[in-house]
Specification:
Layout (H helix, E strand, L loop, with lengths): L1 E6 L4 H15 L8 E6 L14 H9 L2 H17 L16 H31 L8 H11 L3 H8 L5 H14 L6 E4 L3 E4 L4 H15 L12 E2 L2 E2 L2
Parallel strand pairs: 1-2
Antiparallel strand pairs: 1-3, 3-4, 5-6
Helix pairs in contact: 1-3, 1-8, 2-3, 4-5, 4-6, 5-6
Amino acid sequence: MRIEIWSDVVCPWCYIGKRRLETALADFPHADDVEVVWRSFQLDPSAPREATESLAEHLGHKYGGGADAGREMIARVSDVAASEGLTFSYDDAQRASTVDSHRLLHLALVEGGTTLQGALKERLLESYFVRAENPADHDVLRRVALEAGLAAQRVDEVLASDEYADAVDVDQQQAVAYGASGVPFVVIDQKYGVSGAQPAEVFRQVLSQAWDESHPRVQVLASGAVCGPDGCAI
């Protein structure tokens, strides 16, 4: 089973949804046969590479109420995150571009598959929501990428270029084609879509349904004498 997740590294519901999906997978009997791939989705493609305002200020300008209202929004979603075992502390986070974070996620997938990509995704989310680090700062991205296990030379090469920028665009276009208007957006086996950070129970139901439909059982219409592990009926 292949699970593709469109998300952004500065999306709080993406981090919350990640934990809820992980909770669902923890007791999914076929979890060892599940592959999770992270796809790129920039919530704010116009965000600058050099931060010019805080996230609280940006939210306050966008939705009204100023920086204080922005901080209240951050506090509310942080309370939800706490219920999933996450400790958010990003009141001082800056609004900045995430394109380079996404390019490194594509590098991780190519260099080390879904395991390495998953490790980098977790560290990028933690960097922003736990330590309020700038997602566009190359020094931050380099440190986080090396902590996840990427090779320094390749990280430096990607950050110094536009490598994988086209892959980021392709992901974004595919999300639109699927009808996604926000993230997280989860697609299972290119057939089943789940929008938003759904509760773990919803993910459990979708996983079970997707698995059962892709691994149908034979409907037994008649039965008779058989031989089994315990012998043959006489």
